[in-house]
Amino acid sequence: MKELVVISGKGGTGKTSTTASLAVLAGRCVVADCDVDAADLHLVLSPKVLDRHDFYSGHQAVIREEDCSGCGACLAHCRFGAISSRAPAEELDGGLRAARYDCENCIVCRRSCPARANDMIHAMSVAMGVAGGGGFSVDPVACEGCGVCVNLCPEKAIDFRPRLCGEWFVSQTRCGTMVHAKLGIAQSNSGKLVSTVRQEARRAAEKQDVPMIIVDGPPGIGCPVIASVTGASMMLAVAEPTLSGEHDLKRVLQLARHFGIPSALCINKWDLNPDIAARIEAYCREQSVPLAGRIRYDRAFTHAQIQRQTVVEMSEDGVAADIRAVWAAVVAQLECGRAEVRA
Ligand code: SF4
Ligand code: SF4
Questions:
Q1: Ligand 2: which atom is nearest the Cα of residue 70?
Q2: 204-255 tens-digit pLDDT
Q3: How far, in Å, is the centroid of ligand 2 from the Cα of 96?
Q4: For ligand 2, is residue 72 a contact (CB within 6 Å)?
Q5: pLDDT tens track for 180-206
Q6: DSSP assignment string, 157-170
Q7: CATH ID of 2-46+174-336, from 3.40.50.300, 3.40.366.10, 3.90.105.20, 2.60.420.10
Q8: Of these four, 39, 99, 191, 197, which has the most CB atoms within 10 Å of its CB?
Q9: pTM confidence score
């Protein structure tokens, strides 16, 4: 089994459109969309979801208000500012303390406020021990799941629940099985989700005896990219001829070299700036990274996307011929290079 990972370094180079075209040209493959932070391969391949799974990663602190005494220890020690109280901080720091020591327990304030809505009244009620909890709560977006508050809480009033970070899917497309995912809003640990998607793609390929996995990788060189390329048979870097495209391509090729992944270059929209395209090619020659091909700029790409198709399904010539040439070069390199997926 071979696993081709398409990477770009920089976003917006046409990586996903190219990946979709390669998946169509492969004929029989499993497709994995590892760009889980901003998945969009489904827009072109129109997957029909067969299986849907929750993705849990890390933990989330949740205060059980009925068990909270309002001591404020969690708020004082959370380094991520994730805990808040209905009482303003200055009242907690000053007013609440003052209430602890100075309150005569006359409860006039509580009697005079039928809704008990006043923050100071609430703080004083807590200080007097006549109000349950302190209105403490955890902001689920800001909580990093470090567990400090859970360990410090004297009342053991904080649950540490597995965090639901997203979903992953096994779907059917016109190219074969597709494994893809959706990371929840403001959720992290996309590297772990990428590993899950790749693992499930391999499982599907083995089960169906499919010889090729094509992975749409995330942009950048961070954790999700590392999780996408490690152990792959080959990385195809899709670059655009711009200064930032050139810069980010160099970084992603360094990453591939570090992990010992055979690479090839594809320059998309090369004719928008032939000088930078030539410079990128020269750099890749120096680094012994073969050129799989150049793809010209063509609005047919966009027109195909609007119709939820790939450009190779709409045409044989022009930009579609460029992509066919890239695919032929990739297949040749996969066949003569390091071929098998490594564990
Ligand atoms: S688990 Fe850590 S980040 Fe989350 S609320 Fe508790 S102390 Fe703050
Ligand atoms: S949750 Fe625990 S640590 Fe936080 S205010 Fe309540 S009792 Fe204190």
A1: 5
A2: 999 999 999 999 999 888 888 999 999 999 999 999 999 999 999 999 999 9
A3: 14
A4: yes
A5: 999 888 777 678 999 999 999 999 999
A6: -EEEEEEEEEEEEE
A7: 3.40.50.300
A8: 197
A9: 0.79
